[in-house]
């Protein structure tokens, strides 16, 4: 099976130590994490982890189930690129002098849909939001102008599904799966 | 911590207690009567409180924390209740890790309470400070650190709920010394629900119907069950299902004793040293029904050649086990008892006598080529197999057999003819040498009215031999059978078969086990001659107290049949 980049989205209770519990499931299988982002969600006390990793779908499906097994995990989902909206942000620091010497730079930044975030102490910081490929393209374009520092964030992703987080959690809160009941068919 | 059951109307009676006393009250509320543990600096407040609770909580002082947790495991596996363990911080806590890992892989409900340094010292490399939460993360079902006494009731309520619901497992609660010492207003409510934890997935009708259809149409169905049957208490339902459908049935190592070995539809146990028929027929059946088992590599051998021709029905509570190792045709995600009850209504009465005959034919081949050599040997010294079979006959397959790990373990699985449920306790997934003796102590405390027999090799015995002190101090009537070949036998067998007989560090120069036992005031005898075994067994089994029997066995006996590691189950070697 082919290895590909996938996004794992995990909804969890906001508890310390959970990041560790999550990532050791990946490291056990020697799956490298390309990027990881933790954030709050629209629901109070619920966090979202967006983990990007390259592996086979089969392996990641197993990982997702093992993550779901963690007691403080509410939900764990595996997404192909076309099943999510996602974005990353990148920051590029250049010398102000270089920037001012090259009149084309301003045009280049505009062309890439980036913006100037700060100008301070003879430095200029450019900010670009986009996919990894898009932020990389700007990185390449800025290459000749001596990038002083570069940083890129982890991916943040939300699914294309219609499911609402709140409804999903309400379902968990009212499910009959908390105790064993013998059903008749 | 969050409130689990919100009910503002309800007036909760509280009482002012120290954290330590609160811990004990929580345990009593959860029905705990027995604790296995070992004191030390960071858990001393709890032990101090325990001094006043001796009439309600029986504490068994182990001789090493590993002994305490294995005893808790044996207790839990035998009684079906949660095993509880106390240990101090640092080395006390880390000594629990092997047992916790064992309990995790073999799904045993355990609650460990460890003391921790005072909260303001956390992270400072204080005396006996260890990040036990970090260390135990990958090997616990859940863990939590308590730094304030107010968190104790909720943490313990969750611990007991998580440990024993769904697929059971070990939970560790680490409690700082200041949280043990401080007082607070205590009230206890058991945990009934954690929204992020759904231990019993809702049983779906569609896969049940699909499974029933496959089973009803099958010409060569084969059933393999694991420990899930015992864990869900589904022994009766399993028997009813097997009898109605007439399906030849095999057990995994941990499934042993959940279905009588004397039942006409029982065809043996499967896996690396399992029986010939169940292994070979795995690759000949048309429908393969797996219940409460997880397709461990010691069961499957090479997964690429495992039951490829069969349509696999997997009944399993843990969703992460479904399609993990073996792709299933129909997955029934649910509790074994619940699923079997539902499935029983949907399957037709049937019999498969010709197909069953094929298993019997395999059993005859195995008898001729492997079993006879093992249980009726012409060797000078006795074999482990013949001793186990003799013990099985003597006890009519009704004793609780607790084993250690190695050749004797495989021989116990092969030759003890289990005829009563919940009678086999062994370290399966982790293969922990040293498990046997302390686990047997726990088992006897869990089921004091049953005969508990520990079968142990000379290697494993010496890994936790200090627990003889527990047997002495608390007069625990465990019968200990040491099968002594002066070798680490299983490793030696592999060295013989796969490493050109290069016996690298497997031969043991053993102490006098009889004198050691006598030092612990445990009656003991050694048998070497075959003719003396019968009388020795009688004497050893007689009476309620503990007794040790050492049988000197053949040095280089091998366990056969054998599926070499990673090989196809049909390529099982008979000799």
What does it look like?
The complex is a heterodimer of chains A (185) and B (575). In chain A, a hairpin with a 2-residue loop joins strand 6 (115-120) and strand 7. In chain A, strands 5, 6, 7, 8 and 9 form a five-stranded antiparallel beta sheet that branches. Chain A has a four-stranded antiparallel beta sheet with strand order 2-3-1-4, with helices on one face. Chain A has six helices and nine strands. Chain A is an alpha+beta fold. Chain A is elongated and about 80 Å long. By secondary structure, chain B is an alpha/beta fold. Helix content of chain B is 37%, strand content 17%. Chain B contains 23 helices and 20 strands. In chain B, helix 7 (152-164) links the parallel strand 6 (142-146) and strand 7 (170-176). In chain B, helix 1 packs across helix 2 and helix 16 packs across helix 17 (407-415). The relative contact order of chain B is 0.11. The model of chain B has no long low-confidence stretch (mean pLDDT 96). The chains are: A alpha+beta (185), B alpha/beta (575).
What are the key terms here?
heterodimer; A: alpha+beta; five-stranded antiparallel sheet; four-stranded antiparallel sheet; 9 strands; 31% helix; 38% strand; elongated; B: 575 residues; alpha/beta; six-stranded parallel sheet; 23 helices; 20 strands; globular
